[in-house]
Amino acid sequence: WYTYFGNFEANAANQTLAASWYEAGIQCIFVAAGPAGASVFAAAEATTDGKVIGVDSDQYQESDRIISSAIKDLKRVTMNEIDAWNKGTWKGGETVRLTAAEEGVALPMEHSKWVNFTQADYDDLYTRLANDTDGLASSIPVDTTADTPAELASRWPHVNLTYTE
Q1: pLDDT tens for residues 96-146?
Q2: CA angle at residue 33 from 76 to 45, to 5 degrees?
Q3: Minimal CA–CA distance to 62: which of 85, 26, 35, 82?
Q4: 105: DSSP letter
Q5: Does the model's pTM come out above 0.90?
Q6: Residue 14 main-chain phi, psi, to 5 deg
Q7: 23 phi and psi angles, rounded to 5 deg
Q8: Each residue of 53-78: pLDDT tens digit?
């Protein structure tokens, strides 16, 4: 399922919605909602076994229900950019999209609580994504602009989009 809370607030309405998903059988919610993520953390904590994947930074300290976080690897990106500056290859004034190939994204494995996903599994997957070994990385849509949710759904047939107004 996919939804947009319509806000970035930690509030009872967001927590109630997340709780309804857990009650409907959803086991894990990937929450990309800024401070509203706290609402999902609270909903997960109120269940027997609700899990959460955080976003942007390693959120492992926010809740014991967070099994991992999809992070922007700002430390690595910053170091890579400083290195490019020092080598005279830095290009300023450009918007760039950083993927696994540029080491711009990561999972913080030192705090992750995966059950059947090891560091070796992660390293293998990351390498395959960075090298686009199986075409997965090149199949990820990059154009996310759309006038309607239906337009996105038609472009991404492998995604089940449920839009709630």
Answers
A1: 788 999 889 999 999 999 999 999 999 999 999 999 999 988 887 777 777
A2: 100
A3: 35
A4: E
A5: no
A6: -65, -40
A7: -65, -30
A8: 999 999 999 999 999 999 998 888 88
